[in-house]
Structure formats: structure tokens, C-alpha cells
Amino acid sequence: MNQDNPYDLPNGLDGIMAKAVEMQEKVRTAQERAGDKTVTGESGGGLVKVTANGRQEIVSVEIAPQLLGSEDLAMVQDLVTAAVNDALRRGKGILAAELGPLASMLKMGGVDL
Description:
Blueprint: H1 12-35, E1 38-43, E2 48-53, E3 58-63, H2 65-68, H3 73-99, H4 101-108
Antiparallel strand pairs: 1-2, 2-3
């Protein structure tokens, strides 16, 4: 056991800090790439489509014209809600895909992706 490195870690604390900075940079880069990608969630067989990006932001909402004349406002609202949730679920997958194997390490560390 080395007195300067009592836990026998490679490169001691400097090595750990360097790895942490490296991982932080990889996460930041993956978040940027994911933010530039979009996914579309649908409901009602495509009558409502919602597009979200990897930053979990809604980019657009498309509602089929035949729904706008619908007397059933509650149904339209339910379809929009379902499409938004579908898009956001798909959007979460973008970041996990960009992170690759690092995603599972982060999840084990308690990070919700």
C-alpha cells in the first residue's frame, strides 16, 4: 500500500477525477446529439401525432382535420395526451441510445434516463 495512494487506485484521486471528467464530457456530447433528434408518437391510428426531441420538448402537434369537427372534445383531448406520452417515451430512448453502454452504468448509479 502506497502512503500517497492508500487505496491503491490507478493514478489515485487524479485518475478518478480524470475519468469523471471524461464521462461527463461523453454524457454532454450524447445529450447534444440526442437533443438534435426527433421522434413521433401517435394515437388514434395516426389521427394525432406529436413530435418530441431528445431534450423531452414537444416540437409539434398534428391533429387530423376530421377530429376538429368532432363533438367529442374529451376524446380529442385523450388522443392528444396519449400521443404526447408516446412521443416523450420514445424521446427518452434517444438519449439512452446515444449513451450506449454508458447508459447502463449511469442507470446503475441511480441516474434516470
